[in-house]
Amino acid sequence: MRVALRPSPTAKIVDRVMRVVLWAIALMFVVVLVLFVGAILKQGWPVLNLGFLTKMPETLDAGGGIKPQIFNSLYLVALSLALSLPVGLGAGVYMAEYAGKGRALNFLRLCIETLAATPSIVLALFGMIVFVQTLGWSFSIRSGALTLALLNIPVITRVTELSLLAVPRELKEASYGLGATKLQTILKVALPYAATGILTGLVLTAGRAFGESAILVFTAGTNASAQFPDFRLTVPGETLSVHLWYVTSDGTLPDAREIAAGTAAVMILVLLSLNMLVRLVDRTIRRRTR
Amino acid sequence: MPDAPETALIAAPACRVGDSADSRVEANPSARTPTFRQSRAHRLMDRWANLAFLACSLLVVGLIGGILFFLASRGLAAFLPMAGNTGRTLAFSEVFLSADWAPSSDRFGILPFIAGSLGVTGLALLIAAPTGTLTGVFIAKLAPAWMRDLMRQVMDLLVGIPSVVYGIFGLTVVLPLVSRTWLGEAPASGFAVSAVILAVMIVPTIVSLSTDAFESLPSSLDEGAQALGSSRWQAIWHVLIPAARPRLITAAVLGLGRAIGEAMAVQMVIGNNPQWIALMRESTDRAPFLRALFTPAATLTTELVQELPNTPAGSPWNNVLFAMGLLLYLMTMVLILATRRLGHRKEA
What we know:
The structure holds 2 protein chains of 2 kinds.
Chain A: H1 9-44, H2 50-54, H3 67-98, H4 103-117, H5 120-134, H6 141-165, H7 169-177, H8 182-211, H9 214-219, H10 240-250, H11 256-289
Helix pairs in contact in A: 1-11, 3-6, 3-8, 4-6, 5-6, 6-8, 7-8, 8-11, 10-11
Chain B: H1 3-19, H2 40-75, H3 92-96, E1 101-102, E2 107-108, H4 111-142, H5 145-160, H6 163-182, H7 191-215, H8 219-227, H9 232-261, H10 264-269, H11 276-282, H12 288-294, H13 300-307, H14 316-347
Antiparallel strand pairs in B: 1-2
């Protein structure tokens, strides 16, 4: 490496140019996001009204709504979170507090990373083989919720582990010093301290499950129940994201474009508000603990 | 009854500690003579809890094996005479080494999909890796605080947008736009648009990992370079990027993993044409590079989405589709192991 104690004139020019380039690249992503969200909302805006949100969908005629899909989305997200939370929390606690630093932890982390990186279409195939075909549950809410839980588990585990590792050591030592068992320390000291981090992670996991489609096409199906609200676990449960994909690729609806645009706008609005919620919670907590 | 006072002693400070961060260092004044023995019930519970947490972890390990087992049981059925198979048994070579995909006439070469997956992810990575890495270094080393904050939010939002919404954006905005402006109204589906959309989808992964990589470098590197008279960019290019290289490669590999497994967004814009290799070779209406970029194609994931629902279980066609899923899963495992390797080399 050639170095002079002061940058040469060419180096200065290169430096200036590259600064501009870096700013440009970063701003390009901001512009992409703004254009993206703007386009989706602009396309969906004319469709968005109370009728669209509260009507049942049509199969062949124009003018259908997305009421059952909204319900199914929320229902499936809630079910999958309820299924994956205990496992994810448990595995996260084990990794942070019990697993030590040896080969076992390494292997466990490898498994979590692999599960996190497994494409959702692969999880979809697994859910299809196991729940839909082998157990004979066909395309149903329960098949979908269980498979969707597989998507959530590694994320919750990771978030739990990281939040627990961020708990100050003195806190736990104080608890042990007072004679608490490990379980008591975890339940009453570490987890309450880590709760906000875990909660933030949960909201993000919910957002991811809300947007997931590949898994649900193959496990929860592309039909929504004609009843509303239908809490049965054995009926097919088409969610918003699956509906968006299905009307676009199926092409039997005359107003498929409008329905897809409206659904996309609803999804973006939901995710934007989830994001705001996370930041709001994050900020209030940071202010409180400061 | 020695249990009652002990539990009271244990519970009280714990509750207080959870409430405010200020009291966390002070011990409970009433605990001047702590008893370091736990009640039998608590010790028993402690042991059971250990087992419960271990069980959760083992479940995750079991899942990895379970996915492999079930995918293999269906995917390998294409090549082995298994109960439940309805068609003939295929040879490995006619599936993995043939580009001839015509399932209805009993020809099952999946090379077009492997090539399609590699092509579209390669192209996406070509866009996302440099821009993502540079954005990472920008956030970590150059950006003012407000810009750093803004970029973090932008990346959070980009990663949170569902793939079907990316797909519908590609389908209704990008494809018509590209077709109108550059192709004279010819359809624009194919590698180019899919790769651009994939690149936007994986950029947040690369940005956040490379930002971490640059932020974890010791500041002495940066300061040393500048003390020797290098400009900001020289320090970044000659010192920081080489120093962070293993973690930057890991970031790119993880981005690659995300891209190769993405199904819905790509399926909506790539055009879903298994015969794309032939079409690309034979059509003569456009310049070769335009043909390569804008010929409707297919990948492993898009073909699964496209055809799996329509094939009867146990048929060679269906089994081959599951074999494609198995291949995707094995690729994921290889990529994860590769990142492990990179991590170890960094420590050595």
